[in-house]
Amino acid sequence: MSSKHESVVKVLLDRFGRTYAEQAGIHLADKPSPLYELLVLATLLSARISGDVAVAAAKELFAAGYRTPHKMKQASWQDRVDALGRGHYRRYDERTSTMLGEAATLLLERWHGDVRKLRDEAGGEPEQIGALLTEFKGIGPVGADIFLREVQAVWPQVAPYLDGRVISGAEKVGLPSDVRRLAGLVDSPSELARLSAALVRVSQKSRTADEIKRAAIG
């Protein structure tokens, strides 16, 4: 790694290297409950709404006890709407409440409530995992990318997973756009998930990219 790239990566991780799962209070592990929580978060982040609002809504759902597909399915439609509303997820609350209930039912019926079984059905292949994820209402290609970017921290077999948004952020701060070279700038899949989250945030704000480059030089 060049000293310039090293400096940029350090600033990125220090300032923006908190994964969305961490921000939502998810203690991500290769276990059914936290993986389901990540699935819920990816659904919420898929809407055209700010990431902070999506994270706040996820926190409210989890605080209400909806941390498993069983609990999500058992909750009434209105209870889910109310939790989303407390997170200010109001533009999409009713539609999303319906989708979360249907997604919980699908996960329970097809994969026995365990996202790891979906991964196994896909043979651990990121492309196939992404295709299966889009069978959940509310998760399209963008949502699948979000899930895979974050889950690579605990599913190293899908790493490196760096989608277009990550690459866009890398280009803005002068890091390599080649997936393997970019992944080689960190030491582990968990660090790569953090770097990915940081670069997604940078891709959304050109001003932030300029601040990162100035900080790295300084």
Helices and strands in order:
Layout: H1 3-16, H2 20-23, H3 32-45, H4 51-63, H5 69-74, H6 77-86, H7 93-111, H8 115-121, H9 126-133, H10 141-151, H11 164-172, H12 179-183, H13 189-203, H14 206-217
Helix pairs in contact: 1-13, 1-14, 3-4, 3-10, 4-6, 6-7, 9-10, 11-13
Describe the structure.
With 218 residues, this protein is mainly α. Helix content is 67%, strand content 0%. It has helices spanning 3-16, 20-23, 32-45, 51-63, 69-74, 77-86, 93-111, 115-121, 126-133, 141-151, 164-172, 179-183, 189-203, 206-217. The model has no long low-confidence stretch (mean pLDDT 94).
Keywords:
single chain; 218 residues; mainly alpha; globular
Largest sheet: none
Strand count: 0
| Secondary-structure element series | HHHHHHHHHHHHHH
Cα-to-Cα separation, first versus last residue: 18 Å
State the helicity in percent bands. 55-70%
Task: Decide which structural class fits the backbone.
Answer: mainly alpha
Instruction: Tell me the fraction of residues in β-strands, as a range.
Output: under 5%
Average pLDDT number: 94
Would you identify the regions where 5 or more consecutive residues have pLDDT less than 50?
none
- Report the principal-axis shape: globular
* DSSP summary: helix tally: 14
Question: What Rg do the Cα atoms give?
Answer: 17 Å
